[in-house]
Amino acid sequence: MNEAHESSALRLPREIVFALAALMLILVVGAVFNAGGVFFRPVVHADAFWQIAGFGILACGMTIVILTGGIDLSVGSVVALSGICFALMTMRHDVPAAIAIPAAMAVGALCGLVNGMMIALLRLQPFIATLAMMAFARGLAKSDLLSHGVKIQRMPAPPVVEFLNTRVNVFGAGVSIGVFVFLACFLVTLILLQRLRVGRYVYAIGDNAEAAWLSGVPVKRTIIVAYMLCGLFAGVAGVLFTGIERQGNPDGGIGYELTAIAMVVVGGTSLSGGRGGVTLTLLGALTIGYLRKILDLNGVATPEQLMITGGIIVLAVLLQSLRRRE
Amino acid sequence: MRDSVAESLVTCVGVCKSFSGQRVLMDVDFDLRPGEVHVLAGENGAGKSTLVKILAGALQHDAGQVRIGGRETRWRSVHEASAGGVAMIHQELSLATSMSVMDNLFLGRERITVLGWLQRGTQRQEAIDALRRVGLDVDPATIVATLPLAARQMVEIAKALMHDARILIMDEPTSALPRPDVERLFALIDQLKSNAAHPAGIIYISHRMEEIYRLADRITVLRDGRRIVTSDARDLPRGDLIHAMVGREVDEPTRPPAMARGAELLRIERITVHGSNGAMVRDASLRLHRGEIMGLAGLQGSGSGALLHVLFGDGRIISGAVFINGAPVRIASPRGAMEHGIALLTDDRKRTGLCQDLSIGGNLALPSTREYSPGGWRRVSREGAAARRAIDAFRIRCRSAAQPVRTLSGGNQQKVALGKWLVREPSILLLHDPTRGVDVGARQEIYRLIHDATARGVGVIMTSTDLPELLALCDRIIVLHRGAVTAEFDRAQATPRSVIAAAMGESGGTAGAAA
Fold it and tell me: Where in chain A are the domains?
């Protein structure tokens, strides 16, 4: 009975407390190993957010798919494909940004639509379907239809690319446009999952697809929408990465899906679906992003960074499974 | 006669157990003698499962003593308990279904040579012997998934016996068994406890009066984690047993006041439904009227469940027609069925009924999501208000609507599963075994909800694995056998014997067809 009284607005759900604790822990580590005070400079944090942004956008879409009980391995390839399309349009054909950006996003959404249809209508396992899309989209990005396997760039870069590299002054640090795009994607996902009808359907399907179907939930349509959104976010990330790198790279985005999945999982969303949320993913993304930043600041080399990241993922997930057992 | 007051197989003294501060067992004493069936009775949440889990090594007690075979014991794992002669036959069977019967029997204790090779010949012979002991005539190489539920249960028991278990724990073993198999199980239990050389002791959990009194030598009743009474079965009449379980007087299922038959609500004409293995329903016709409760009786595989599902748009009708309020309809999906005012309570709340991690409120709102979110936007306050009303109206015992459904007892989960449909005020309510695995108190409340619905004119079609319940509740009973309607009874004509005879395919049970 007393629990009901305690559940005031101040009491955060336990999952969020755990994800916050993990982030705080990383930040404390950063404050201790502060690389001679560098860690306390605002510019370092603006930089950390900037590095997180692209992956964070992918993680938002990935959260939706994982909540349905699925997975999307194709987002890294879709980033490359939509990025190449964006680069071709803006750098080769002088297509205005107002058309090029939505078109590149539509390429991502189309890949997601195909994923969703393979999974919902042909009943392929998400792992298999998106693995196939991962290969196909990569091939298409490198094919003679699009990039001929070479990077696409132009000097000077078109204005939209310069715009994507703009920094906005926040507390004396230049915050990249990408960070705002990430926050917008986060908010869209949050509203979708918490306030839209389709969000309810996503959770119900991930929890128990059979029961959801027998409760009148349009299971197939919801799954297709989920993968389409994931693809759409990959399209957004593709535009952003192309902007940041000032080139379209057919070999870009390799392994990004794994970083995105890691962010979702470290946040505490269950890979079996139905449990978690995008707020957790935001915290997970910050945790992994800051971990990398702190290792960078302290001059830890890439091989060691990867090993430490692997360890942290295991630790974070172990912590969550302990929480669930209680 | 042997020295029968031999050492007890199990003796528990003052056993206590808490989960995160909540006490679920308090000072419970319990004992089991060789050669007896000791029934554990009590409402869901009374602590029965916790007690047997302690005996079977799945949980550890906090305080008190557990002696097994005279020695004080505190199992650290299920494995240790099974090595110590305690075997649990689970409510949800724990066989690896894609492996063979033999592989399951030897799972975890394969007979191997020094080199690690499986001794399949030896295993096969032992498996055949073990299956013969439980009277199951299947090839040990059979894949478990191809066996009916009853046979799987026999395999589980055979497995327990092979490991020389002398203490057998059965948690609602008949909840999913068709009638003839129930009898076979009972015969096996009788045989196990009267085995001259090694009489087994059997702890039996059940919610069904009929079988409690069929099997029990002694009965222990738990309520709210305390032992209320332990008594010889013959000294504890039904009324006293129920009273001990719920702590108040409860009536057996009562018949609602007879209602004048209302207008025709639903008519099915000669429908045929195909499942994965052949016809599930063949040429079935029936009519349902407003305010009527119609029972579908039948053994496992009779097609009654398939008929309910197909009426709800889950499955495909090959031929035949369905009319609602006299107009022909085509129902292609659950969503479509809901638009015609049909609701289906499935028989398995874990697998098909509820989203276990979703909140009570979320589950109650799920079928009505569309109504609660005009334009795609959720109206959270509307959902919340509806959830609170439903929790009150259906007497769902919980701390808050935000609690995940999985934290509720079985009976309260069932009230959520039924409640999520009742809030939609359906006109046709399909109930697939609505009181399965539900305790006495919650059962009464479910009956009340069904009666309230019929009083408003709702037509109900229900099945039940509990035949007395079906006879007590229904105005009419249709009997299915292998997918075909074999008999129809009015309430006055239906007797357990006539219904079972028709369900087993005996013709001549069509007494009520004239009515």
Answer: 13-325
The alpha carbon of residue B439 is apart from the nearest alpha carbon of chain A, in Å, by: 23
In one-letter notation, the amino acid at residue A126 is: P
Helix (H) or strand (E) holding A232: helix A219-245
Q: Does B111 touch chain A (CB under 8 A)?
A: no
The predicted model gives A67-88 an average pLDDT of 97
CATH architecture group of domain B10-85+164-246:
3-Layer(aba) Sandwich (3.40)
| B334 interfaces chain A, CB cutoff of 8 Å | yes
User: What would the two tokens of residue B494 be?
Assistant: 């239906």
DSSP character for B66?
E
Q: How many CB pairs under 8 A join A and B?
A: 84
CA distance B194 to B182: 19
- Please say whether the beta carbons of B489 and B499 come within 8 A: yes
Could you tell me the pLDDT band of residue B514, with boundaries at 50, 70 and 90?
very low
pTM for the structure as a whole: 0.79
What Rg, from alpha-carbon coordinates, does chain A have?
Answer: 20
- One DSSP character per residue, B378-411 reads --HHHHHHHHHHHHHHTT---S-TTSBGGGS-HH
Confidence band for B176, pLDDT divided at 50, 70 and 90: low
Judged by CB atoms closer than 8 Å, whether chains meet at A274 and B355 is answered as yes
User: Which runs of consecutive H residues, i.e. helices, occur in A268-301?
Assistant: 278-297
- Closest-CA distance of chain B to residue A244, Å: 35
**Is A227 within 8 Å of A116 (Cβ atoms)?**
yes
pLDDT at residue B499 above 50?
yes
In A145-218, alpha helices (H): 159-164, 177-195, 197-207, 209-213
Judge whether B10-85+164-246 and B264-354+408-514 match in fold.
yes
Pick from B194, B196, B200, B131: nearest CA to B164 = B200
Is the model's pLDDT at A99 over the cut of 50?
yes
Q: Do A196 and B373 touch (CB under 8 A)?
A: yes
Closest chain A C-alpha to B366 CA, distance in angstroms: 7
Domain ranges of chain B: 10-85+164-246, 264-354+408-514
Superfamily holding B264-354+408-514 = P-loop containing nucleotide triphosphate hydrolases (3.40.50.300)
Residues near B151 by beta carbon (within 8 Å), at least 6 away in sequence? B136, B138
Locate B38 and state its tokens.
Answer: 């000791």
What whole-number percentage of chain B has pLDDT above 90? 43
Topology, domain A13-325:
ABC transporter involved in vitamin B12 uptake, BtuC (1.10.3470)
Got the DSSP string for B142-177? SBGGGS-HHHHHHHHHHHHHHTT-SEEEEESTTTT-
**CA A179/CA A48 separation, integer angstroms:** 10
Residue type at position A240: L
Q: What is the pLDDT of residues B72-107, one digit of tens each?
A: 999 998 888 888 889 888 755 678 888 899 888 888
Residues 6+ apart with CB under 8 A from A226: A64, A65, A67, A68, A70, A116, A202
Share the mean pLDDT of chain B: 85
